[in-house]
Design a protein that fits this description.
The protein has about 80 residues and is α+β, with helices and mostly antiparallel strands. The chain has a domain of about 60 residues. The protein is built from two helices and four strands. The N and C termini lie far apart (about 40 Å).
Length: about 80
């Protein structure tokens, strides 16, 4: 498949998806709530003080992987080799 056909297929796929998806993570252990907002083509993560960062589509899978690593570390105390020192 050439690049122009692939780009057209990607565009049609994106058009068929919903415009926005929001996940809210409740406050926990003294930390305020967090909101993750997926509004194609970006993901915005907002903390309880309304500070936010924008993540590109290419970064989304990396962010997911890092969040999973953080969860494992918090739950099991395992050292995360991939974490920045």
């Amino acid at each position: 498949m050439d690049d122009s056909k692939r780009a057209e297929l990607d565009r049609r796929t994106m058009d068929s998806l919903g415009d926005e998806k929001v996940w809210r993570i409740d406050a926990y252990e003294g930390c305020g709530p967090v909101t993750m907002n997926l509004q194609l083509p970006t993901v915005t993560i907002t903390d309880s003080e309304a500070r936010f960062i924008v993540i590109s589509p290419r970064q989304a899978s990396l962010v997911s992987s890092r969040l999973e690593s953080i969860n494992d570390w918090l739950q099991y105390g395992e050292e995360d080799d991939r974490a920045e020192k």
